[in-house]
Specification:
Number of strands: 14
Distance between the termini: 39 Å
Shape: elongated
Largest sheet: 7 strands, parallel
Oligomer: single chain
Number of helices: 11
Radius of gyration: 20 Å
CATH architecture of the largest domain: 3-Layer(aba) Sandwich
Strand content: 15-25%
CATH class of the largest domain: Alpha Beta
CATH superfamily of the largest domain: Methylesterase CheB, C-terminal domain
CATH topology of the largest domain: Rossmann fold
Order of helices and strands: EHEHEHEHEHEHEHEEEEHEHEHEH
């Protein structure tokens, strides 16, 4: 995107608005065109200024950020980055916001510190590329097959921007005896436990943040912590290993790190899935899985919030099948099943 990205900052704290604005103005590709102290002011500013992206606080007077987001995505969809307090409540609400259509979320830093703003400009620029759609009532997921028979394969999934909604749709369609599934989602560490809990409530499988040494078991889904790489290691018994080494492909946790480990440990007894996300993390790892004999699936452009990671994987020949999000769960289960006609 060559033109300057116009940003509206919404937060009830004048101090926090100033910190956010200073951080965004440091990037020459971003232009802060306005600010608002509550959703009432924000609604008027959006109509008048027509921003490309909105940064939105959660707890505000007159209307909380979640209610405002729901109305905004229903009536005038626009890319939104949530700026949340680094608390459990803030994390839970941020996951709900991502499910409602927010493109991304970032932790609100301690006043006077810049550490929490490290990724803010990048997230806002990524959001400007996002495909946002009016919110509609979600269709109920297909009933998990009662006769599903896993083949012993491992499922590995990678996602980034837009991944929360995508993961919810995929995992909620998995049966209680789904193949062991490992996931790397680019997300602040504060929010990963809330995402795992949300996926656990909505679906039949047991979903948790991965711990060092967890044995991969049928019916269990393991989510990478937000600050460590998740890899699969072992021989006949596969386990989760958490790495505190540096970023891989610019990310920690990295989808490439996960996929490469699955390629080397499970090979043809695995299925790789790359979902919506900015950049190309996961493309090389998915190619390694493909070359090792794994079945590989990529989300298609029309249903991605950002068609970066799936595009990169497709362009290097790592994707066997490119599918809309609505078909990915069943295609993945079919590829890892011994049940005739599971597709």
């Amino acid at each position: 995107m060559s033109r300057t990205i116009k940003v509206l900052v919404v937060d009830d704290s004048a101090t926090m608005r100033a910190l956010i604005i200073d951080s965004l103005r440091a990037d020459p590709e971003l232009q802060v065109i306005g600010q608002a102290a509550d959703p009432i002011e924000a609604r008027a500013a959006i109509k008048e200024l027509n921003p490309d992206v909105v940064t939105l606080d959660i707890e505000m007077p007159n209307m909380n950020g979640l209610d405002f987001l729901e109305r905004l995505m229903r009536l005038r969809p626009i890319p939104v980055v949530m700026v949340s307090t680094l608390t459990q409540r803030g994390a839970d609400i941020s996951i709900a916001a991502l499910e409602l259509g927010a493109v991304d979320c970032i932790g609100k830093p301690v006043v006077g510190g810049g550490e929490g703003f490290r990724d803010l400009a990048a997230k806002v620029k990524a959001a400007a590329h996002a495909r946002v759609q009016p919110v509609t009532a979600p269709a109920p997921p297909p009933a998990p097959a009662s006769n599903y028979a896993p083949s012993g394969a491992v499922i590995a999934i990678g996602a980034s921007t837009g991944g929360v909604e995508a993961l919810i749709k995929v995992i909620s369609a998995f049966p209680a005896n789904c193949p062991p599934t490992v996931i790397t989602q680019h997300m602040p560490v504060t929010f990963t436990a809330s995402l795992a809990a949300r996926l656990d409530r909505l679906g039949a499988p047991s979903v948790s943040v991965a711990n060092e040494g967890d044995e991969l078991r049928v019916g269990h889904v393991y989510l990478a912590p937000g600050d460590r790489h998740l890899r699969v290691t072992g021989g006949r018994t596969l386990r989760c290993t958490l790495g505190d080494d540096g970023p891989v492909s610019g990310h920690k946790p990295s989808v490439d790190a996960l996929f490469a480990s699955v390629a080397s440990t499970a090979g043809s007894r695995s299925v790789g899935v790359i979902l919506t996300g900015m950049g190309k993390d996961g493309a090389a790892g998915l190619l390694a899985m493909h070359d090792a004999g794994a079945a590989t699936i990529g989300q298609d452009q029309d249903t991605c919030v950002v068609f970066g990671m799936p595009r990169a994987a497709f362009e290097i020949g790592a994707v066997d099948r490119q599918l809309p999000l609505s078909r990915i769960a069943q295609a993945t289960l079919s590829a890892a099943s011994t049940t005739p006609g599971a597709r």
